[in-house]
Predict the structure.
Amino acid sequence: METKKLRIGALISGGGTNLQAVIDSCSSGKLEGRVVFTGSDNPLAKGLDRAEKAGIPTFVADYGKISADFDANPDSVDMPSRNIIDRTLEKQSLYAVPVTPRDKTRLLKKIAAEHQLLSAIRTFQFDLLILAGFMRTLTPYFIDEINDDPHLPRIMNIHPALLPAFPGTDGYGDTFRYGCKVGGCTVHFVDYGEDTGPIIGQKVYSILPEDTLDSVKAKGLKLEWQLYPACISMFANKRLKVVEAVYTQGRKTFTRKIVEIRPIGDTS
Ligand code: GRF
């Protein structure tokens, strides 16, 4: 019996080498899935060509243009309901630092861009959304529209550092400049924070005295291309579950949010 293939949606901002690795793993059969759409915040993203070459539908929500339109006239930009906006601002400020008036405008623009992104995404049926070099953080509005099961989030991200070290946009640069002896990459589910969600998998490489920033990036990317399809494959095979694990040490009790990975073949 043929198992149902995982329908993967992808969001990218740039070159799309991770997207390519996922497309290739799907075509070789290593990954029981198919990429059903590729969206971008950037009309010039090279990765869009990769998707088109593979016959995958693409779309763009041009964040730069939406932000400029908002600056020119906020009323000209399509937004979700007032209620959704208020709840999003509230959730964001509960989770992160308090939202200042300047942050508020930035958030409103992001919500507007996500509104456009979501209206394109909603035209597809998909099981998992992967961020493959999508250089934007997502607001609770977007995340809550995609996620419906707290034990199985549906948005994954790949990050170019060993989280929780070096979140942000320059993981390889930060790792190299800090003088680390090892670097790595991380695949995690996305939550409201920046690169803070539960970790699914990590891979590590050594940093040697002769390494340069370019060689470090090359080592890391090579591992990303293996790690991302492997983590998506575990999702496809229903091996992942996010659990709150209570851990006691002496008199202290901690709660850890971890991704449980079921062994292959365990269907219990
Ligand atoms: C990768 O290093 C990824 O970890 C990070 O952005 C980069 C994207 O590269 N989030 P590519 O577009 O997949 O080539």
Q: What stands out?
A: The pocket of 5-O-phosphono-beta-D-ribofuranosylamine is lined by residues 12, 14-18, 47, 132-133, 158-160, 221, 224 (CB under 6 Å). The beta strands are 6-12, 33-40, 58-60, 128-131, 155-159, 182-189, 199-206, 240-249, 252-261. Residues 213-236 form the longest helix (24 residues). The longest strand covers residues 240-249.
